[in-house]
């Protein structure tokens, strides 16, 4: 029997709230790639392309879980040909909440066959409060330490393979900016849904988000090369916590990741 607390996460219209996305987050062009001269085809679930691991990606699976030394450890075994991906993949994720109000998430995976892996946390945040919607989100101050980004095609937001500077673009978030003002500068004011290339290497702070009106702030660290900055542009009447209805720009995501569609582009 499935717990009532899980039912909302398993709904068809759940836009990856709080999800662990995999095996490969973001897009895979045409749902195909080549490894060792062999072409693989994976489940296509966004037109002729693949997004966030396919139709039944990691967000749709029930993980094993245990509590150990103040942490929650979740494990999942993804068998060979799961959604078309090669090889058995075993993944372990540890969530730890520290005394300093830090949420630490550690991903570990191993496989018995070459296979693409890009596992992402897809939590949404609104520091004004989950029920404050776009009005609250627009009040946020955002800094993202990224000099470059990976441009997208207009159709299906597929990476072109290029790397460009954020200079003179709406993606320049290196200095503190009011999010509502920044969203107005995006195409048609739709908001952000872009992979930014995080400056530096190794584990480092790359973003700070603050809501001055409430005094809440969040600093974000990662060892990943990129971050998908997403402002929930496609939320539409999704029922969430306490029956709250979430719509466009109700929250933001900072999805630390490998570059989108990397398996189809020369590094």
Automatic annotation (TrEMBL):
Pfam family of the protein (one): Aldose_epim
GO molecular function, one term: aldose 1-epimerase activity
Keyword terms, alphabetized: Carbohydrate metabolism, Isomerase
Protein's UniProt keywords contain Isomerase: yes
Cited InterPro entries: Aldose_1/G6P_1-epimerase (IPR008183), Gal_mutarotase_sf_dom (IPR011013), Galactose_mutarotase-like (IPR047215), GH-type_carb-bd (IPR014718)
Catalytic reaction list: alpha-D-galactose = beta-D-galactose
Gene3D superfamilies hit by this protein: 2.70.98.10
Keyword match Isomerase: yes
Origin superkingdom: Eukaryota
Pathway: Carbohydrate metabolism; galactose metabolism
Physiological role: Mutarotase that catalyzes the interconversion of beta-D-galactose and alpha-D-galactose during galactose metabolism. Beta-D-galactose is metabolized in the liver into glucose 1-phosphate, the primary metabolic fuel, by the action of four enzymes that constitute the Leloir pathway: GALM, GALK1 (galactokinase), GALT (galactose-1-phosphate uridylyltransferase) and GALE (UDP-galactose-4'-epimerase). Involved in the maintenance of the equilibrium between the beta- and alpha-anomers of galactose, therefore ensuring a sufficient supply of the alpha-anomer for GALK1.
Family: Belongs to the aldose epimerase family.
Protein name: Galactose mutarotase
Organism: Ranatra chinensis
């Amino acid at each position: 029997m499935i717990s009532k607390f899980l039912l909302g996460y398993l709904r068809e219209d759940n836009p990856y709230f709080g999800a662990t996305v995999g095996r490969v987050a973001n897009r895979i062009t045409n749902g195909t790639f080549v490894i060792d001269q062999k072409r693989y085809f994976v489940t296509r679930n966004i037109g002729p392309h693949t997004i966030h691991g396919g139709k039944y990606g990691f967000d749709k699976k029930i993980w094993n879980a245990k509590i150990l030394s103040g942490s929650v450890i979740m494990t999942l075994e993804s068998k060979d040909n799961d959604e078309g991906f090669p090889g058995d993949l075993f993944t372990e994720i540890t969530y730890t909440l520290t005394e300093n109000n830090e949420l630490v998430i550690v991903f570990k995976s191993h496989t018995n066959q070459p296979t693409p892996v890009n596992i992402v946390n897809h939590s949404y945040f609104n520091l004004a409060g989950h029920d404050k919607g776009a009005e609250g989100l627009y009040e946020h101050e955002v800094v993202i330490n990224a000099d470059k980004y990976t441009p997208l095609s207009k159709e299906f937001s597929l990476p072109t393979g290029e790397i460009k500077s954020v200079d003179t673009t709406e993606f320049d978030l290196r200095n503190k900016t009011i999010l509502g003002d920044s969203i107005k500068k995006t195409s048609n004011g739709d908001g952000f849904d872009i992979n930014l290339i995080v400056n530096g290497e190794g584990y480092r702070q790359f973003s700070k988000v603050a809501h001055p009106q409430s005094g809440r702030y969040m600093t974000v660290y990662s060892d990943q090369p990129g971050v998908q900055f997403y402002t929930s542009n496609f939320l539409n009447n999704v029922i969430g916590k306490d029956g709250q209805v979430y719509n466009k720009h109700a929250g933001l995501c900072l999805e630390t990741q490998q570059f989108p569609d990397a398996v189809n582009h020369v590094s």
